[in-house]
Amino acid sequence: MSQTLQNWKQEINQCDSLKVLEDIRVRLLGKSGEITQMLKTLGTLDTDKRREKGAEINQLKEGILLSLQERHAHLAKQALEDKLVAEAVDVTLPARPERVGTLHPLTRTLEEVTTYFAKAGFSVAEGSDIEDEEHNFNALNIPEHHPARQSIDTFYLNAEKMLLRTHTSPVQIRTMKTTTPPIRILSLGRVYRSESDATHTPMFHQVEGLVIDKDIHMGHLKSTLSDFLRNYFDIVDLPMRFRPSFFPFTEPSTEVDIGCSREGNSLKIGAGNSWLEILGCGMVHPKVLANCGIDPEVYQGFAWGMGMDRIAMLKYGLYDLRAFFESDARWLKHYGFSPFFSAGA
Description:
BirA Bifunctional Protein, domain 2; eight-stranded mixed sheet; two-stranded antiparallel ribbon; rod-shaped
């Protein structure tokens, strides 16, 4: 019996699948199995022999049952591990693009602009959409009679002259009041003005830059904006000109034009016989520095501002700004971008 038990155990331990193991169990322990047949022969033996033979067969049966249970546990564990490996899902992989939608052109533009200036050492500063006249106008050297302060252009909220900010410049003012130079920030977000047509909406997005330090001059401003615009439009030889202008918060002030072509009733950025105004900029007015507690005899700086919606329209060939905010999934599917892109590319 012991040799028989060893042979069967060896067969069980060499079994490599649960199906084969079940076949062995049925062959040995089933209704017509070998051990069952052994038990049926006990009736032909006398009492002493039956008792002795029965004990041997039961010991054989228990040994087989134990071997079957151990092998079954091993094979079941192995089968589970194989299944987990075969059906494993790498949760670190990105989702399939078609399942996560597309990026809005403004979202892509925001990421492109912030990525570029982050590499240039700028930090992002944000502020409230609701402002007061002190930070939105007064501290920026904008006089009370200035047209921008009239209700026809500005959304006032109450008699205390709280308003929806008309630019992100108040973020710059609050930063200068609470931060010791050097300062290098990008302020961006939603702004509000009472106008609406194909290229203007009551709410739009603006990005402004501010640099305050010692020994800052106009050359720093020009090189910063030239490098950015050529990088953003991906045109190395993009024609540019800085045209004298006027803003209450900068002195001197300029508007930046980039070269373009308008042939064939189409606008193409780059070399051409025409110019397109893209942004306003200048050296921070000494009065603005003084209003923020910064000594204009020690520090100087430059600032600029541009509409993110506008530069998105120019780069990606969009013609009506109002479509940006209509929540039309068809428009977004057509003009949207894959989320799997490098903003710094």
